[in-house]
Amino acid sequence: MRIFLDTANLKEIQAGVEYGLVDGVTTNPTTIAKEGRPIEEQIRAICNVVDGDISAEVVSTTAREMIAEGQALARIHPNVVVKCPLIREGIKATFALSSQGIRVNVTLCFTPVQALLAAKAGAYIISPFIGRLDDIAINGMDLIRNIVKIYNNYGYPTKVLAASVRTPIHVLEAALAGAHIATMPFKVLDMLFHHPLTDKGLAAFLADYQKAFQETTVG
Ligand code: G3P
User: Fold this and answer.
1) pTM above 0.90, yes or no
2) 83 is annotated as an active-site residue
3) Cα gap 172→86, rounded to integer Å
């Protein structure tokens, strides 16, 4: 499964890259706004740090404007993937941009049939939001499972990206469900390392080793 960071913050992205684990980055208007720099500058800076798919989202809401915005975002760097919302105009823009060879990540997906429309429009990636469904007591992971099943039924090449990931369990279940990608905040990526028995085991190993050789060296 590919691991993406769900942030526009360069410090977090750099820290993730240092683990050697980050395959890409997803941004949205909220995370870009948080960094306070024009989207072109921020996305170009991210492309210089991560050699992978970098999703940049349009903010207009008509197909004609989204297509123009998408073409401009795609010109920033070959690794840019244009993000379009799963609304009627967004699907029109997805079809047009995909037909021009521009890769599109269709975002704000909450149902399997929405995901079917995106695949038929030629989406490169679909982004179902797990956490936001869980927030309203709907099992977000069922959405991932159903989309993977439908895409496999018909051989759609669209990649399933688990988005709105909040916990390590989301990452585990997305991998078990066969999601191609999981995008997560840096905090969640960092939590994936942790297990108390790993820490306890390492401490015991080091203590045993030190005790044995310290005695020999002192002796
Ligand atoms: O890219 C979508 C993702 O950022 C949304 O996450 O946690 O705000 O639901 P969240």
Assistant:
1) yes
2) yes
3) 26
